[in-house]
């Protein structure tokens, strides 16, 4: 896979906030970067503004984390020239260093936190509830409506200002293969079946998938479910839907029918990412499933031939309605504030500002539209075509579901992954699928 570490690091998300970086401390604080120094020179502190130093624990490991952070700090110097940020680089240790800080009463004023840290620090009263500040600073108004799940946790509160939006699973296709072989890009299941048969007749793999890994199998199934039930696998995970419900059983039936018709390459459940991607990148497969992080590799391999399609549905009306329902998700996380910081409002204001500017730079300078907040500044680095399409789709998204690694019930997750992977073999009935998941739902409680 190319390489899922990218996604797992960026998730929760990503989604996105797994620890990344070095355990070493920089020789200079972040405020001493060239950009920040220039900003400080251009915007001297007001005479009546008392200098304040805040310690911040943040990712600072590569171009994708250093440049947006430096930009945010430089912008902060313009807005709040009296505030100096002392950077403590986030360690690549699954949050252990931060948890040690909390246990010893040495938490930074501001720190990056994913859902694991949020849940842990809620119990120990080490993280500040930001509900009032989200409203006071107008942060909620700046959120992408489709990314509100990254702002508010299941208990209805906000503990971090998010900058990363929802990652999504996409159904990629080779435009030339469809055009050259006279195959219509499918909008319905019947058209999908027609495409599968047409490509098989030409010796072309209809859809490549690295089904040796279970999450792409779950993503494909989730895509089919969301055409009728936007809640997808997330509702199964939470127990608000059952595998026997029409949308879920029908999705299983549709996949079984398509697999039996030859939708997937032979031995799909033994293919890894490199093998499955090669079929698509080399023009031997018409479609391919992966997350939006595949856009760069697909564009490099196929150029303008590569695109992603909206998912086929039962009929034209369901297809149009389903265009805004995406498979994939993110989770709460971003810049959080210590409950024990001296000036809570100032720390929250700085955390909010840094998050907004971090997302702004990612969007305008890193060609990354997967951000939680709206950006109204012009793009510096143009998006490649598929990313441009995604940047236009994101504000329209009405629902996301979940990636399998984001499911909350480990026992049910394992059963769901196994059952859906079995769907990819064509030797598994929807009745057995429902039976296995119903049994897992009971035992996982």
TrEMBL record:
- Which range is the signal sequence, renumbered to this chain? 1-18
PROSITE patterns tied to this protein: PROKAR_LIPOPROTEIN (PS51257)
Q: What keywords would UniProt list here?
A: Signal
Q: Which Pfam families match?
A: SBP_bac_8
Tell me the Gene3D superfamilies matching this sequence. Answer: Periplasmic binding protein-like II (3.40.190.10)
| Presence of keyword DNA damage | no
Name recorded for this polypeptide:
Sugar ABC transporter substrate-binding protein
Task: Identify the species of origin.
Answer: Paenibacillus pectinilyticus
Per the UniProt record, the lineage of the source organism begins with: Bacteria, Bacillati, Bacillota, Bacilli, Bacillales
């Amino acid at each position: 896979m190319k390489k899922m570490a990218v996604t797992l690091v960026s998730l929760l998300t990503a989604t996105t906030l797994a620890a990344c970086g070095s355990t070493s401390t920089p020789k200079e604080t972040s405020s001493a970067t060239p950009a920040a120094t220039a900003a400080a020179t251009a915007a001297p502190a007001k005479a009546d503004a008392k200098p304040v130093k805040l310690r911040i624990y943040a990712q600072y490991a590569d171009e994708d984390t250093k440049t947006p952070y430096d930009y945010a700090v430089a912008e902060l110097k313009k807005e709040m020239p009296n505030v100096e940020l002392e950077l403590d680089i986030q360690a690549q240790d699954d949050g252990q260093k931060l948890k040690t800080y909390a246990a010893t009463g040495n938490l930074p004023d501001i720190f990056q936190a994913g859902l694991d840290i949020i849940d842990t620090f809620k119990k120990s009263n080490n993280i500040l509830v930001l509900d009032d500040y989200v409203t006071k600073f107008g942060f909620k108004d700046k959120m992408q409506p489709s990314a509100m799940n990254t702002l508010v946790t299941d208990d209805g509160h906000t503990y971090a200002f998010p900058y990363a939006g929802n990652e999504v699973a996409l159904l990629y296709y080779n435009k030339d293969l469809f055009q050259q072989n006279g195959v219509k890009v499918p909008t319905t299941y019947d058209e999908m079946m027609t495409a599968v048969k047409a490509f098989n007749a030409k010796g072309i793999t209809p859809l490549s998938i690295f089904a040796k890994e279970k999450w792409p199998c779950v993503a494909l199934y989730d895509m089919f479910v969301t055409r009728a039930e936007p809640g997808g696998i997330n509702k199964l995970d939470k127990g608000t839907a059952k595998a026997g419900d029409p949308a879920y059983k029908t999705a299983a039936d549709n996949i079984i029918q398509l697999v039996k018709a030859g939708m997937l390459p032979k031995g799909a459940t033994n293919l890894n990412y490199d093998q499955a991607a090669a079929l698509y990148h080399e023009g031997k497969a018409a479609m391919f499933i992966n997350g939006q992080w595949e856009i760069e590799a697909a564009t490099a391999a196929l150029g303008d031939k590569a695109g992603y399609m909206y998912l086929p549905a039962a009929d034209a009306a369901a297809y149009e309605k389903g265009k805004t329902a995406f498979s994939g998700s993110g989770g709460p996380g971003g810049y959080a504030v210590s409950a024990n910081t001296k000036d809570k409002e100032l720390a929250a204001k700085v955390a909010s500002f840094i998050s907004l500017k971090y997302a702004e730079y990612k969007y305008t300078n890193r060609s990354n539209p997967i951000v939680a907040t709206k950006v109204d500044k012009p793009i510096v680095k143009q998006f490649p075509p598929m990313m441009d399409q995604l940047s236009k789709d994101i504000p329209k998204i009405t629902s996301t579901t979940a990636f399998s690694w984001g499911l909350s019930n480990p026992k049910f997750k394992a059963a769901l992954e196994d059952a859906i992977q079995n769907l990819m073999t064509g030797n598994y009935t929807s009745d057995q699928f429902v039976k296995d998941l119903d049994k897992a739902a009971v035992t996982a409680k």
